[in-house]
Description:
mainly alpha; Growth Hormone, Chain: A; 3 domains; two-stranded antiparallel ribbon; 17 helices; globular; MFS transporter; MFS; EmrB-like; transmembrane helix
Amino acid sequence: MTSPSTTSAPGTPVAAGDRRRWFALAIVMTAAFMDLVDVTIVNIAIPSIQRDAGASFSQIQWITAGYSLAFAAGLVTGGRLGDIHGRKRIFLIGITGFTVASALCGFAANPEMLVASRILQGGMAALMVPQVLSIVHATFPAHERGKVFGLFGMIVGLGAVSGPLLGALLTEWNIFGLEWRPIFLINLPVGIAGIILGRKFISESKAPRALKLDLVGVVLVTAGLLMLLYPLTRGRELSWPTWGYAMMAGSLVVFGALIAYEKRKAAKDGSPLVELSLFKVKSFAAGIAVQTVFGITLGIFFLVWTLYMQVGLGWSALRAGLTGVPFSIAVSAAAGISVQKLVPRFGRKVLQTGAVAMAAGVLIYIWEAGRYGADIAPWQMALPLVVMGIGMGLIVAPLTDAVLSEVPQEHAGSASGLINTVQQMGTALGLGLVSVVFFGVIDEHVRPERIPAEFVDGFQNALWWVAGVLAVIFLVMFALPAKPKQHVEGGATDATVPEKEPALT
């Protein structure tokens, strides 16, 4: 049994009785959960931040979108740094920086400092998060990954929807008179524990061949993403200037230059930042497309949902947070059974059923919002939220498994970085579209007594867009393999996962 603090040598077999890999899994999953919660926890505290810190709408938008921008821009680089310098090392650097940035957010003296700290937090998450799937991919043998990715799907579901509830409780309790600040400070004990335990239990792993950091690729990826996402984030605030459209069009040119450069880089020294050969794997290419569009759905829904309840309906943070509990339970339950029980038998039909279920829940929500208006009660929202939660749970866990199922382990860092990057790109695109699909419907100079009706209309309009995006997801899913090759009737096999880098203990 090798020491978990050292790099396992090539050829080291998996120690079947080594329970420390499960401790390592718990640590990296906790870090992933911390990141997922931080993405959603801010939304529920927006009214408190506005009141206490005097933040403008523009600053609030940057507090939420700045994190996603920094996260998306750095994820591919973070994955490659883990491949080069060691996934454990980069993970520990990332979680340390994330913890420090959380402290800066919690003690921010003004909205400008909070925005800057959130951007730093997103950058540190970009180092930490890609290592999670890479460490799982390198630590667990192929026949165990189905179970692990099922757990990961449950964590994704819990993180996405428990953030608002946790944020609501911390904000309502007003601990030590700190208002919204504990939503960030809660990361400190979790992060410190992750650093200490991670050093002890996580095994080091790297790509089996020497790689170089592609600095030109880093610049092109970062520039392309910022040129695309910055105008979307600030477009409504600046009345959609011409230069914004020019920047978004220019981002396509930059991405084209990136592809051309990466092809030359791969031929020259085999160390491109974006491993384009991954897109020759059908399951990966199709999964990436689904992941991107799914991110748009999440970006639109969660922010609009929070604003609808707290600002439009005038609910407290706690009431809004508790309303999401049925959704959280449904996501977790569906994610838990999807990979282990359903996907091996029904393949991509499970994911497509998830898209249909989410769309059905959205349509029920649209009907209820119109039927009950401002008088709608939390219990009346339970049905659409449960249906949507089941649909989301059927998607999140199998999708991760499908995207990575045939990826060689030496490209695990690049692949996981791309998975997270495209989802964050989709989320940021969704956040940008909120300006059009939600605020574009609401009269900026609406009288106070008209606010509930205006927000109900905006909510319904945004949900129609979400339903349309889910229809696109359903169609794109036909490009996924009918049944993942690593699954056979009765269980998973490791036949299709190339063990070019042995699993580590």
